[in-house]
């Protein structure tokens, strides 16, 4: 499988990705645990059918010490007992924020109330931003049909 175009080497794409990557860096430095961030990115990528991002974030999580069991259970986190309450709240916010078109009123108040039990305001801004950014990356890669499987942890710096 080949991507529709080489997005990663295109000059305009490079300018765009520079800004998205800067936003992602700011969001990732705001105190949400790294492995929680990888769970969020993986779950959104699964929902959006982005093989490239799912490959990337499961491999990055594994390289950071995440267990195979937890990685294998992300898509079924509601039934899994291996996630903390804080992680579950972040995963629920991720699902609701990613499937925003499926909910007439957006993210429900009870989902928001639950996530605020575990994260302070700065971390909430980080989570909202991470969810928005991974959804942008997912859309770029799905539209471009970016193939999955070849990512190596750290290959993008």
UniProtKB/TrEMBL annotation:
NCBIfam families: ahpD_dom
Regions crossing the membrane: none
Occurrences of domain Carboxymuconolactone decarboxylase-like (ranges): 21-95
Species in which this protein is naturally found: Streptomyces adustus
GO molecular function: peroxiredoxin activity
A Pfam match: CMD
Protein name per its UniProtKB record: Carboxymuconolactone decarboxylase family protein
Species classification: Bacteria, Bacillati, Actinomycetota, Actinomycetes, Kitasatosporales
